[in-house]
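Dear V.,

Thank you for sending over the compound details. I've combined the ligand you provided, LARABZUK, with the protein sequence from our construct and run the structure prediction for the complex. I'm sharing the raw inputs here so there's no ambiguity about protonation or stereochemistry in the SMILES, which I know was a concern on your side last time.
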Amino acid sequence: MKTPGLVKICGLKTPSTLDAALAAGADMVGLVHFPRSPRHIDLAEAGLLAERARGRASVVALLVDPDDDLLDALVASVRPDLLQLHGKETPERVGAVKARFGVPVMKAIGIAEEADLARVPPYAAVCDRLLFDAKPPKPAADGATVLPGGNGIAFDWRLVAALDPGRPAMLSGGLTAETVGTAIALTGMRAVDVSSGVETAPGLKDPIEIVAFVAAARAAWRAQDEAGTP
Ligand SMILES: O=C(O)c1ccccc1NCC(=O)[C@H](O)[C@H](O)COP(=O)(O)O
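Below is the predicted structure of the protein with LARABZUK bound, written out as structure tokens.
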């Protein structure tokens, strides 16, 4: 029996876009707490959105290299189902966060070339889920802010197609309603994550694109299941 497909919509900031993701059937909703991001929300806002989603979808709190004080505050106000660590956290730090806070952890790993796959096993040993994402672009000469994720950039999905990390994994990076079906067909991934691909501008989610993305992912999984693809 195949695992059911999971769709995560990340970077939700408002009750109306959260509701749109829930109505579309998202399995996971991502709340970004990272002040440099156009999707950043404070802990009070994140707590309110988390309560709205509770029991309808898993609440994922996304942080970048958080210290224990921030994690203490976030876990108390958001009560996330999953912590998404999207910075330069080492495997040791991921293991320490999981042990201290008792919340499952998903670690994002940037993939650009085959050599990046060597970073997977140490994280697979300590986290609950891996998130394969594109690497951020190089900083621009004008010093414009580069985010560690949520850049709408895709990587070569074939790099993770044959991978069995021994942990549940999720595919992200520049996915859209138009590309997610191909990404699923190529990789066999049963979990996908999107942010920029369902936005009209950074941080502005589009309910119509959210519906289209969820439907496209589900259609791809249905096609795989009907074809009996392993
Ligand atoms: O979304 C952000 O602004 C962000 C900021 C800092 C670290 C990660 C961030 N986002 C990650 C994601 O939204 C997703 O998990 C994933 O990378 C997909 O992003 P996208 O390529 O925009 O679909």
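A first observation: The longest helix spans residues 207-227.

Warm regards,
I. M.
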